[in-house]
């Protein structure tokens, strides 16, 4: 009877599984196929690994890949801000319930809205230049130099991401047995000692998870910020890999090059996911 019930359940979900798997598998397989071709979407000329060879010798791809590493600066920053926020919420400082909502508010805004906020704020006639004008400073063109542009995007990443991640860290903090803190306080451990010896070691798994998802996010999900704030400029100095995939695949006549770059990015993210699984496996063995 139990085996029959399992069989009925499997048959019931099988059609949905096939449909979902098909919608996921077909785009991936088709992207792999066209990565071996020179195509404009209408004609397909098989060229084997030429698209991949050109990627590894293309200076633009090298520059864009380095740009992604520049944006990795946002990872420790957003984790630090999220950790400080989570600890303050955990300590239940005055008004913590109100700030818990305020901290999470940026996470419910779309990337487009956040991008427009920062693009307008740092525009030539934006609020930042107006504030600088109060001190007699000349307005700045923030988006004509890469350093300012990268700084603004990193600022947007930190502001938009710290609230959600602070809740993840707060969940880890609340899972710690309060008796541990009480025993440490009785033994004379101060606040800083409890933080370094009890709090941080007990949330290392959550910190590791937050670090990995931020690392993967930096390589796969900055398209919206780049598209709205800088459009990859000036030149390619703020272009990321996922935005370059868009430029190659949809803003040129060669979809194959963009597909090849997308496949390389897919494999790279897959490797990061494997590293994530290995890290968590090692932590479970501790």
UniProtKB/TrEMBL annotation:
Annotated localization = Cell membrane
| Keyword terms of this UniProt record | Cell membrane, Membrane, Transmembrane, Transmembrane helix, Transport
Which cellular component terms (GO) are annotated to the entry?
A: plasma membrane
Q: Which GO terms describe its biological process?
A: transmembrane transport
Main localization of the protein described in the UniProt heading: membrane
Q: Which residues cross the membrane?
A: 12-36, 71-90, 102-122, 142-162, 206-235, 255-275
Q: Does the keyword rRNA-binding apply?
A: no
Q: How does it sit in the membrane?
A: Multi-pass membrane protein
Say if the entry is tagged with keyword Transmembrane helix: yes
Q: Which SUPFAM superfamilies match?
A: MetI-like
UniProt cross-references to PROSITE patterns, sorted A to Z:
ABC_TM1
Under InterPro entries, the record lists:
ABC_transporter_permease, MetI-like, MetI-like_sf
Q: Where is the ABC transmembrane type-1 domain?
A: 60-276
What is the protein name stated in its UniProt record? Binding-protein-dependent transport system inner membrane protein
Organism (species)? freshwater metagenome
């Amino acid at each position: 009877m139990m085996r029959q019930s399992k069989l009925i359940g499997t048959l019931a979900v099988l059609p949905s599984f096939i449909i979902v798997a098909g919608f996921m598998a077909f785009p991936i397989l088709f992207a792999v196929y066209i990565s071996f071709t020179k195509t404009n979407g209408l004609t397909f000329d098989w060229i084997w690994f030429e698209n991949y060879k050109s990627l590894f010798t293309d200076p633009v791809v090298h520059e864009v890949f380095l740009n992604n590493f520049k944006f990795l600066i946002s990872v420790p920053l957003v984790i630090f801000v999220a950790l400080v926020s989570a600890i303050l919420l955990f300590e239940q400082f005055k008004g913590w319930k109100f700030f818990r909502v305020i901290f999470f508010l940026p996470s419910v805004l779309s990337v487009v809205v956040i991008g427009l906020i920062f693009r307008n704020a740092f525009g030539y006639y934006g609020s930042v230049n107006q504030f600088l004008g109060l001190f007699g400073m000349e307005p700045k063109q923030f988006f004509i130099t890469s350093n300012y542009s990268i700084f603004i995007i990193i600022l947007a990443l930190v502001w938009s991401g710290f609230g959600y991640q602070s809740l993840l860290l707060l969940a880890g903090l609340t899972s710690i047995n309060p008796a541990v803190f009480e025993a440490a306080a009785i033994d004379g451990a101060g606040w800083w000692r409890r933080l370094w010896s009890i709090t941080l070691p007990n949330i290392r798994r959550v910190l590791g998870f937050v670090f990995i998802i931020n690392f993967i996010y930096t390589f796969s999900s900055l398209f919206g910020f780049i598209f709205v704030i800088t459009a990859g400029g000036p030149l390619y100095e703020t272009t990321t890999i996922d935005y370059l995939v868009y430029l190659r695949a949809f803003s040129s006549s060669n979809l194959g090059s963009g597909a090849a770059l997308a496949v390389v990015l897919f494999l790279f993210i897959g490797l990061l996911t494997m590293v994530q699984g290995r890290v968590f496996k090692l932590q479970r063995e501790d």
